[in-house]
Amino acid sequence: MFNRCQSPPRLPPGSDWQDRNAEAVAGRYPGMDVVVNAAMSADGKLSSCRREQIKISGPEDFDRVDRIRREVDAIAVGIGTVLADDPHLTLDDPKRQQRRRENGRSANPARVVIDSRGRTPPDGRICDDAATTHVVVSSAAPDERREALREAGVELIVAGEERVDLTTAFGGLEAAGIDSLLVEGGGELIFSVIEDGLIDRLIVFVGSLVIGGRDAPTLADGDGFVDDFPALSLTSVDRVDDGVVLSYVAGE
Fold first, then answer.
1. At residue 142, does pLDDT exceed 70?
2. What is the rounded CA–CA span in Å between residue 241 and residue 226?
3. Omega within 30 of 0 (cis) for the link into 212
């Protein structure tokens, strides 16, 4: 696995977190467990070129994802997913919510949006009171957008200048008490998590359909790799619904 840096100190709830020594942590990785989970078509697409939500998996896989959500401290998505899907990112099964309460945890994991410019809608479902919501912005996010998000009850983390720096952001999430993170997309965020060496495990449902389209989002968008391709080790293959779930751990 990747080397991990010492965990930063916990900060009190409600306080914005901004890295004061980004240079010191550059190239080092927080100690949280980071799992990427996604569903893609047989040709590796997360959606069509319209970037609309497409049903790729079925009820068995939805339940599998809900079980993973039950175990983690937080669920992260990129701003593109928020604007396209208006996700809620909560547990579907009330019994699982109750078990979390019985274990001294909140009913739902915290929610995290990676959003350089602060475009998360304050009235979106992801900002309701079903769970704590952290929005990670860059220093370039306009002050009025930050204030609107604070007024909606969102906890802000500032990391990076023009774009969110994920290593710094993940340190801020650790400071907020998040030790396990489920990254659910989209492709740009997944690529960045892999590129920055922050991923521990990758779980992919591969559905039995073809979407196609050169402009359709893939599992890992972004600039792509031309050498030093990140290595993964396949740990299991399971038949679920009319597809398969591939589980990997990140290489050294």
1. yes
2. 34
3. no
